[in-house]
Write a structure and sequence with these properties.
By secondary structure, the chain is an alpha+beta fold. Helices cover 59% and strands 15% of the residues. The longest helix has 39 residues.
Length: 185
């Protein structure tokens, strides 16, 4: 009973975890990664569009990103957007494409990034717990209707808690891995 509700809660929690994965991908480590530019947007025909949708982003070397826009007129816009971002990258525009060397992170910057990783992870945990709360509130309403036995309600609330615990554990592992990645040289 209540399988659909638990499945829905599971999907909502999984979306929170995916959102965190996406945010973690945009946090710069010492390695080049095309997803670093996912959050950068440029104006393209009057619409703010992700750089990754108007260009090809490649990683020719471990510490090099190359952006090749499909429309050369976007080169200056992309360059400006990268400079204004908080990534700390310096784009080099050669008229055809933009190259960016990924600088080595300082120890101080690594510690700042770990704080950011922990903050984003905590936000994701809060989101998962809020989804759990939504499930528990729903079950309390069901209990008040008194169409279902108290045992079924308690069992479902317990299943929601176990689901939440598994998701939080997954978030902890994800966070731990990202911190290792940030702290590794």
């Amino acid at each position: 009973m209540y399988e659909n509700e638990i499945h829905e809660l599971d999907e909502r929690m999984e979306k929170s975890i995916e959102a965190l994965r996406s945010e973690f991908a945009s946090i710069r480590t010492g390695q080049a990664n095309a997803s670093l530019l996912d959050s950068i947007r440029v104006e393209y025909y009057g619409t703010m569009t992700p750089v990754t949708q108007v260009s090809s982003v490649s990683v020719p070397e471990a510490r090099m990103l190359v952006v090749q826009p499909w429309d050369k007129s976007l080169l200056k816009e992309i360059e400006k957007a990268i400079l204004q971002s908080d990534l700390g990258l310096v784009p080099m525009n050669d008229g055809n494409l933009i190259r960016m060397a990924i600088p080595q992170l300082t120890e101080e910057r690594r510690k700042e990034l770990v704080k950011i990783v922990n903050k984003k992870a905590e936000e994701a945990k809060v989101a998962v717990r809020n989804i759990r709360r939504d499930g528990n509130v729903f079950m309390k309403k069901e209990e008040k209707k008194s169409e279902v036995s108290k045992d079924v309600i308690e069992e479902t609330v317990e299943r929601i808690q176990k689901l939440t615990d598994r998701k939080i554990e997954g978030l902890d592992k994800l966070t731990e891995n990202k911190i290792k990645e940030v702290m590794s040289v």
